[in-house]
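Example complex used in Figure S2.
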Amino acid sequence: MLRIVTQMIEAEAELRRISERTQAEQHIHREATVREILQSVRRQGDRALLEYTAEFDQVELSPSELRVSGAELEAAYQAVSPQLLTALRLAKERIEAFHRQRVPSSWVMFPAPEIILGKQYRPVDRAGLYIPGGRAAYPSTVLMNAIPAQVAGVPEIVMVTPPGSDGSGGKGVNPAILVAAQEAGIQTIYRVGGAQAIGALAYGTETIPKVDVITGPGNIYVTLAKKQVYGTVGIDSLAGPSEVLIIADESANPIHLAADLLAQAEHDPLAAAILLTPDPKLAQQVQQAVATQVEAHPNRLLVEKSVANYGLIAIVPDLQTAAALSNLFAPEHLELQVADPWALLEPIRHAGAIFFGHHTPEAVGDYLAGPNHTLPTAGAARYASALGVETFLKHSSLIQYGPMALREVAGAIQALTQAEGLPAHGQSVQLRLEEDRS
Amino acid sequence: MLRIVTQMIEAEAELRRISERTQAEQHIHREATVREILQSVRRQGDRALLEYTAEFDQVELSPSELRVSGAELEAAYQAVSPQLLTALRLAKERIEAFHRQRVPSSWVMFPAPEIILGKQYRPVDRAGLYIPGGRAAYPSTVLMNAIPAQVAGVPEIVMVTPPGSDGSGGKGVNPAILVAAQEAGIQTIYRVGGAQAIGALAYGTETIPKVDVITGPGNIYVTLAKKQVYGTVGIDSLAGPSEVLIIADESANPIHLAADLLAQAEHDPLAAAILLTPDPKLAQQVQQAVATQVEAHPNRLLVEKSVANYGLIAIVPDLQTAAALSNLFAPEHLELQVADPWALLEPIRHAGAIFFGHHTPEAVGDYLAGPNHTLPTAGAARYASALGVETFLKHSSLIQYGPMALREVAGAIQALTQAEGLPAHGQSVQLRLEEDRS
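Predicted assembly (876 residues):
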């Protein structure tokens, strides 16, 4: 049953409870496990990978089987439907077009005589994508991680994903994932998952090269491993379970709202699906429609669980209050199913992605609208953004001063180096002035 | 003595050793200490802050003394020289002008009928700046952190810095820091440092508000605390000790090179100062000049130590090899003191900031050229960039589809939801099509 709350204080408390459903503090013992796994991979390389794969994935691999072979890559194309291939290509085209917008590029300026300033952007040398196995083995995730790296111009992109995601219980990888990877230009794929895969990408092994940036979602062990290797490599974010918050008024269709809430709930028992509406009648109708649609869902037990634990309808005084509550939650996905959705944008301060109007279910953005579906969760939208081309770029500041330009600022630098007690800093400027005088 | 190596294999090994001088693995026991401090601050708020300040800083504060008073802020202006105030204002002007360049702004596009896509940029609600005490209490650091936050439009910026940085041994804060903060528009300053200050900013206490992003350098406890709270808040980076790598040819002045190397070495016993040159004569002259300048340095013992441990001159076959070695090290600061420095930019792939030519000592960029002096260290330039306005901005993806646009992609979405086993995702699209038909 999807609960309805009507008091603002209760709504706030519920939103806070849902937002804090996965606090890092619960994972201290897992952190120690992850640290041990990372250290083993760092010290023992492939050997540790094979041992952990046998232990955690119940799959025995030889070192040469770590990398997915060319024959498997080719065979994957035979295993997917023409419809899926067409869909992947459409998705790739739209995602790539969006990510090619506003890519930052290098620049210089000449603010005064003898002075050049600027920034030079470069891609990282090597990126590693983590693609989960099991229930979350999604080809769309491959596209959403690989395409920004390609658009950034990363010369070498590798992918890791656990064995067994083809459902064989063996070594195989879901063919849809292998096809998505190849469509996105990735040929180097290793069948290894979990914290051990993150360790391999961060430190390198005999088979798997060390990368500069690791992106992609995973379970709690993968997330804790990404946090631990952050600083040795760059990472995209610490992804938590998915969530949607919908603001709807009487113009919305309760059947559609229910479907959107369920589309979130079906991801994971920890997924959160929230509706804020000023319309009590709509709230009742959605509650009823959710109950009906849950009954019909092939994965009813999972959906029931997430709806019961992390589903919520809050009846709010007005849309401005809904926006304020949404800012408190800072949702990963925000749907504005109201008569004038663009009027509601102004008060929204934090959201990973915003879906406008009655014909933009989140699924459009999940798959192919173009913007990235890797978004900040658990309130991280307060300070973080979608994965993007920038995740795979970095810049160097460029600075040139000439002798006269240096002389003009020498006094100011001297005053600052004295205040900071750094005499050699001052000397590095003063010695250059003396030479100019001679 | 600044060592000279001539074999490439030795140079590479030395650069790797210097790069790895501060590996996170050395800090496992400190991580536990930091975790305990963060938990205490989270649970006990101000009380924990005051206890840790008494323990670590030997300063007894009452809760009302945590915040630097208006009277102290005013008095700070009397304690700094007119030269320093002028210098801070010049630095502020140039840093602000540079950071106002290429600030990302919101946009939408209309790629096809009924489709709107875009990004909306917003500043974070609240930023917290950490400014170290002791030897590293630098007013320039205040400007470099505060100005990007101001340019981003962050409505509330607070600063934390340990008591005692005025050298009184008491509660006072270095007046140059208080003046720099006010010049940059910050009035809310708390006298607390260390991991406990990071905890206060991440979780909030009775006195100190919870922020969304924490930036600024600190000692190893501050850095470990930033890593642990990352995910609860955003952070700028995990700063390590400072470093410079200089590539120079026979056109460079050995006295200037020596001064630049010492300007790095004087920061910290862990600071690294490296020269790569194809000119053996220059190498000898720099070694001699460093010895002479070290003798004259007021902080001779510290400088000797960092030069001996983490200083290096490598004689390389040519400038291209120097660029390759520099990429291996991925230096925070890179000086190109060669006859044609811009010709050497192409092969440089990783560097936090690049200083061109003979009249651009790093000190120019440290203080006032404009680009940020908060830069990636310890090889992080392979994947990370300078602190900037983006550190305080985030964006929401904007997506709107109309009914016909949705219908056109419905088949592709259906194929993808089936491949991913997410039927409610498909339903959320299909149900909307049925309504359109009726």
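Chain A touches chain B through 133 residues (CB under 8 Å). Residues 4-22+240-368 of chain A form a domain with the Rossmann fold fold (CATH 3.40.50.1980).
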